[in-house]
Automatic annotation (TrEMBL):
SUPFAM superfamilies: Thioredoxin-like. This is Glutaredoxin. It comes from the Bacteria. Residues 45-100 form the Glutaredoxin domain.
Amino acid sequence: MKLLLKGFRNGLGAIIAFISWLIPVSKVKRSAEQQQKVDEQTIHIELYQFFGCPFCIKTRRTIRRLNLNIITRDAQNRQGVFRAELLKETGKVQVPCLKITSDEKVEWMLETADIIAYLEKRFS
Ligand SMILES: N[C@@H](CCC(=O)N[C@@H](CS)C(=O)NCC(=O)O)C(=O)O
């Protein structure tokens, strides 16, 4: 029963992800120089996520709209290193989670609303 529910949830998530991918987003436009500056910043940002999670899909849409090259990390794979890292650093497996690395520190940001607000404030 648990497996069946999990399969249903994953299937539904994949369908939502596919529909979201089909719906176009109006991307922020930047000059090549501006985009390069943004890319230099986003190289230090990673999104820990599940492919079919609705909160992650919403976050990925914002990333697409803001035209950001942010790498995604699969935290769904139970044997995966990224899930283990997320659990170790935040104390739980909750996605989406943004890992923001700067010279002095690494920040782990949970909550879709906070992540979207952060990205919009910094990059729009
Ligand atoms: N309040 C959180 C909710 C996020 C959430 O519920 N994420 C689910 C995936 S859709 C999760 O991390 N579940 C943990 C698990 O399935 O192990 C947000 O808005 O980001």
